[in-house]
Design brief:
The protein has 4 helices and no strands. By secondary structure, the protein is mainly α.
């Protein structure tokens, strides 16, 4: 997925499918204190869905926003023994 993300080709809307599993993981483990991460993920999902000429490279922006959101989510989480 990282090689696809940083490849110098046009990122179309059909690449959004690979973000479904991390998006579902975020939905399963978020807490109310992480509302801003969910806001970033929803913004990225919106950018990934729309097709507009007003925003250039909206799908690429959405994928980089997804990546940043999930990295922040993974680094912010503290693993408790109950989660294992």
């Amino acid at each position: 997925m990282i090689t696809d993300l940083f490849s110098p080709i046009f990122r179309g809307q059909y690449y959004a499918v690979q973000w479904f599993f991390p998006l579902l993981m975020l939905a399963a483990y978020w807490t109310k204190s992480e509302w801003w991460l969910c806001g970033l993920a929803v913004t990225a999902l919106f950018l990934s869905i729309i097709n507009t000429a007003l925003i250039k490279m909206e799908h690429s922006i959405a994928e980089y926003l997804f990546l940043a959101t999930f990295i922040l989510f993974a680094l912010k989480r503290k693993i408790s023994p109950a989660m294992i």
